[in-house]
Amino acid sequence: MTQSTSVNRRVVLAARPHGLPRLTDFRIEELPVPAPQDGQILLRTEWLSLDPYMRNLMEEVGPGYAEPVALGAPMVGGTVSRVIASRHARFHEGDLVLANAGWQDYALSSGEDLLALGDMAQPSLALGGLGMTGFTAYVGLLDIGQVQAGETVVVAAVTGAVGAVVGQIAKLKGARVVGIAGGADKCRHAVEVLGFDACLDHREPLLAERLAAACPTGIDVYFESVGGAVFEAVLPLLRLGARVPVCGFIAHYNEDALPPGPNRLPQLMASLLQRRIRMQGFIILDHYATRFEAFRRDMAEWVASGRVQLHEARAAGLENAPQAFIDMLQGRNLGKQVVSVADSQAFEPGERPSL
Amino acid sequence: MTQSTSVNRRVVLAARPHGLPRLTDFRIEELPVPAPQDGQILLRTEWLSLDPYMRNLMEEVGPGYAEPVALGAPMVGGTVSRVIASRHARFHEGDLVLANAGWQDYALSSGEDLLALGDMAQPSLALGGLGMTGFTAYVGLLDIGQVQAGETVVVAAVTGAVGAVVGQIAKLKGARVVGIAGGADKCRHAVEVLGFDACLDHREPLLAERLAAACPTGIDVYFESVGGAVFEAVLPLLRLGARVPVCGFIAHYNEDALPPGPNRLPQLMASLLQRRIRMQGFIILDHYATRFEAFRRDMAEWVASGRVQLHEARAAGLENAPQAFIDMLQGRNLGKQVVSVADSQAFEPGERPSL
């Protein structure tokens, strides 16, 4: 399906999922392309970002940091969008902007939430390594995790959008990096392409034993985005004064109720106390005002010098966003998951292959 | 039983407890009073400190921050001790010192772990509000908890040695203080004597609902020393950016195995993330070098001006230390639990009554 100049396709929330979302929880609607009023900008979506936090916004009660998506409303999401028409002084037809247009072909904006992108060789990176997910990795590892040279950093979902950047920043700060990922292909990629010291497949047995062997001096920083069995394997290995930045817990996003026992909360408390561990949740929205400029400067330099590689998994076509999202929640992507919504961009030359 | 000049009574660990310790887990032995060698000091115990951490040292595998007590060895513990004989240049007969002589009448020391106390009106306070437990409250609330004026602070075990000081420091920093304690008498003491804004009896039903009503704007700092049901009531009320210093989890010290489900760890992770909560365990031993002088100066001023009241629960006689310890683990004390080991001190004039 191609983008039309007269029809706005949008993916709306058709039903609140129980557990892993299904395709029937989404519905594609077609509406006329809206017309901008005074002060408004009409945007056409070129790239749509798919991120685990969106699963939380599908619940009736939102996660607190953002409003839940209403039934029948379009799914929300960050986009790279083209200005098609503007009745706003600061934005002009043809401008490329970072926007929050959601899962649809067209959207109106008042301009307040737009960031001009200028010329970028690979604009979709503004949704990933050069944008929200890269920034999450940067703040989480450096500000919350306070990694030091010589320390051991364990990174969950290490081939994902955030994890891959966390691991690479940790390496260039002089840390030893042990990744955890689902599947042998991902682990090979983590070691051979991303250059991490080790990577463990959490689907194989004896994760706790293998992790202990891979971290002979224990773990100084655990970058948490997963929860579940991975955290249980990590907890006994956390060293005195360890830091645990928590940016997600994807293993539990699809749970409808508290999981069965035993209750591991007391064990966590005991570990926090005995080993003076600091765990801190963070939401990247809080940090743009103070840290985004430093991130943008550092990351641009690291990417330009090849010290950080940014990988993308690209789905083609807005109509395939629901399946790509469901796949991502099951860890089927390698790197940042985006959707090329404008057809001309789906197979642009020079893109990196995704596994 | 009185202290003898020739016999050293000591309370040794007779058996490792399962759950709450019993009197049969302890045994009193009598040995000759040892003689100091060159460089050594002979100490006679005047006051023995009883603290929840000691329960952890009764396990075969220690908590990490201190060695477990060996079977047949004397129980460890902080003491206020008198120098009886000295072959050490810095200490002299008659000096009163803060020591780690353990649960016994006499002990030898190399002097390295002694702190001269000078003249104190109430030397036992060096074990409590002016010592380790007061320092724990100070560092936990100010450094880890970073309380601000106008915030709501919830304090578990608020009539205990640490909690009562946490609450009083929070009040003098301009916070609203809601205590949690076991029993109506303690709650009355917390409000009427210690001056807290409210106190909830965790033994009464509907703790979660009552806590929500007592904290209409949520909780900014939760000072954790208990765990269990209290923490479960607190968690949903923690505000954005809340801090949770963890100095203990006494509700779980007597557990032999992981408690039954549901597993509340994922719920904790979700809360940490969504509300950017920082939880941090700390062990007060880590902070003496950097913060003890500031604590000593501030606390001396607060106590002298009456802004902080220090209450003690006193047991009389070393032979009663095991029962007093068991009682303390069940929350039967009000304020810091000490044992007067030197008989002359058991009922000194001017002591505050304990409930």
UniProtKB/TrEMBL annotation, chains A, B:
Question: Which branch of life, at top level?
Answer: Bacteria
- Which SMART domains does this one have? PKS_ER (SM00829)
The Enoyl reductase (ER) domain, residue ranges: 19-339
Q: What keywords would UniProt list here?
A: Oxidoreductase
Q: Indicate the secretion signal residues.
A: none
Q: What's the protein name?
A: NADP-dependent oxidoreductase
